[in-house]
Amino acid sequence: MSFEVDVARRLGDRDIAVRFTSPAGLTALFGPSGAGKTSVLNMIAGVLRPDAGRIVVGGQLLFDSEAGVDVPPEARGTGYIFQDGRLFPHRRVRANLLYGARRGDGGSRLDEIVDLLGIGDLLERWPATLSGGEAQRVAIGRALLSGPRFLLMDEPLAGLDRARLERLLPVIERVRDALRLPILYVSHDAAEVARLAGQRIDMGD
Amino acid sequence: MWGELTPAEWTAILLSIKVGFWSVAGGLPVAFGLAWLLARRSFPGKLMLDAVIHLPLVLPPVVTGYLLLLAFGKTGPAGRWLNDWFGVSVMFRWTGVALAAAVMALPLMVRAMRLSIEAVDRRLEVAARTLGSSPLRTFAEVTLPLALPGIIAGAVLGFARSIGEFGATITFVSNIPGETQTLPLAIHNALQLPGGDAVVLRLSLISIVLSLGALVASEMLARRSLRGRVAHVL
Q1: Which residues does the UniProt record annotate as the domain ABC transporter (chain A) (predicted)?
Q2: What ipTM is given for this predicted complex?
């Protein structure tokens, strides 16, 4: 099992409660906006604390409210690809890519990842000058170079036009097939999920 | 015109710069800590703390000087403490000038830095954490560089305010040439003397040059630290 998640969290007047286990490969967390999908990713990444529950990824216990386990986010080995990219505006693309690499392998896979994502000619650019699709590919590269044990992708294709989306989809498929990391992929697009995911977990309102 | 500066005027100029430097060097870390508290934490008494920090901005400076006198005088609590523990006093010393200047500059430094800390996108800090950075490292590599323009602005405003401080200084540590007589105090002194007009004019011009220089320097530094962060700039 790659993800074993059983968490509950109250956010404002909303209760988020999910329980699922997923096999290896890419698992989609599917549901309408506002269902709390991003909150689930945040809890797995350790940047939102569940009120109660237990999170195990790839056999490693990350959170257990009963046992008092709460691994800090920097020690979880998360490769988190945010919906909004979140590149560091004060670092060039190359420095963004290498930001998490000291936890990984020090950046020795930079060339390989750059090739995989097709971002070779962006390395000296500033994030503010990138298009949405370019920024998202850099963000994926940054996460991959941080030596992650698993990936969390929060609607990485949202906000892209059809053409850019069509170019980025195969990139995500390559990442899925080449790196063999457990991936939890949030989306509200059924077609996208059908194309990418081995398993789909539905989150309702 | 520069050749006409007397040793006493040079002393006042250099003292002003020294006071400005130490006021900012000592006050900036304190101001940053306070700005951080106000920007990032919520705690009981926050409004009160905010008000107290801003007090020197709105109080008559002579009142601030008097309060410093009460606190740091021979019998004041802070003055006794400094004397008992370190055997020093800031009374009638240039260190007292720097202290008065720092207190007067504090609200300006806190305001500038608070705004810049509040403007830092905390989602970037979250991203840094997931990429393996400890809270301290995240602060040093993400928060601090992103808040840098505000820190520079705070430092320069603080410096300019410090070299211009008059009321609190003269009340607190008097007007002693060579020890507490900064540029504004020297100007004030010259104004009292018959035939001091030329000195007043010279020192005023120097004040303007110093202040303008500080502002230009801060603008250049701020632009440099913003390098690449604004869209369409390569």
Answers
A1: 2-205
A2: 0.92
